[in-house]
């Protein structure tokens, strides 16, 4: 395969990693890095807007051309700032969705793990054995109640003898 086709088809070891896709942690880290970069760019544009506004005020009526140019640059910076705001909102939404998806995946894995554990515990249980055990327990409780009743009825103990 030629170098050009490898480049465009994603051949080689880098391509095999791309097919697997990034882990959620890697994607979250990249989204956070992008958010930080855009936030810094926002701060930079805000200072540039303030600077252009100050420049326009400084030129005021003395140099109308320079003041208009400063206002035009300010307008461009504001447009870029609005675009960055929209991009940041989209990235934040995507990051939150990815975090929620990752959480849901982990919860689902843990629920599957718990289901397997319950299945393993229930393997050793037989429903017929449980019914037999419950009947034995009920019978023994009845016997214990009869013994308790017999012991507690001492008033009739003396009346049962025939003279």
TrEMBL record:
<keyword id="KW-0472">Membrane</keyword>
<dbReference type="GO" id="GO:0000815">
    <property type="term" value="C:ESCRT III complex"/>
</dbReference>
<keyword id="KW-0813">Transport</keyword>
<dbReference type="InterPro" id="IPR005024">
    <property type="entry name" value="Snf7_fam"/>
</dbReference>
<protein>
    <submittedName>
        <fullName>CHM4C protein</fullName>
    </submittedName>
</protein>
<dbReference type="GO" id="GO:0015031">
    <property type="term" value="P:protein transport"/>
</dbReference>
<keyword id="KW-0967">Endosome</keyword>
<keyword id="KW-0175">Coiled coil</keyword>
<comment type="similarity">
    <text>Belongs to the SNF7 family.</text>
</comment>
<dbReference type="GO" id="GO:0005829">
    <property type="term" value="C:cytosol"/>
</dbReference>
<dbReference type="GO" id="GO:0031902">
    <property type="term" value="C:late endosome membrane"/>
</dbReference>
<keyword id="KW-0963">Cytoplasm</keyword>
<dbReference type="GO" id="GO:0032511">
    <property type="term" value="P:late endosome to vacuole transport via multivesicular body sorting pathway"/>
</dbReference>
<dbReference type="GO" id="GO:0009898">
    <property type="term" value="C:cytoplasmic side of plasma membrane"/>
</dbReference>
<dbReference type="Pfam" id="PF03357">
    <property type="entry name" value="Snf7"/>
</dbReference>
<feature type="region of interest" description="Disordered">
    <location>
        <begin position="1"/>
        <end position="25"/>
    </location>
</feature>
<dbReference type="GO" id="GO:0006900">
    <property type="term" value="P:vesicle budding from membrane"/>
</dbReference>
<keyword id="KW-0653">Protein transport</keyword>
<dbReference type="GO" id="GO:0005771">
    <property type="term" value="C:multivesicular body"/>
</dbReference>
């Amino acid at each position: 395969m030629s170098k050009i086709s490898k480049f465009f088809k994603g051949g080689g070891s880098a391509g095999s990693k791309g097919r697997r896709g990034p882990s959620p942690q890697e994607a979250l880290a990249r989204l956070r890095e992008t958010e930080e970069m855009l936030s810094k760019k926002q701060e930079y544009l805000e200072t540039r807007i303030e600077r252009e506004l100050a420049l326009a005020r400084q030129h005021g009526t003395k140099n109308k051309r320079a003041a208009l140019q400063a206002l035009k640059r300010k307008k461009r910076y504001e447009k870029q700032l609005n675009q960055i705001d929209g991009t940041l909102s989209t990235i934040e939404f995507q990051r939150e969705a990815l975090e929620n998806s990752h959480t849901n995946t982990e919860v689902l894995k843990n629920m599957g793990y718990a289901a397997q554990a319950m299945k393993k515990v229930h393997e050793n249980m037989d429903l017929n054995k449980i019914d037999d055990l419950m009947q034995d327990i009920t019978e023994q409780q009845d016997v214990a109640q009869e013994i308790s009743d017999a012991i507690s009825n001492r008033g009739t103990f003396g009346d049962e003898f025939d003279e």
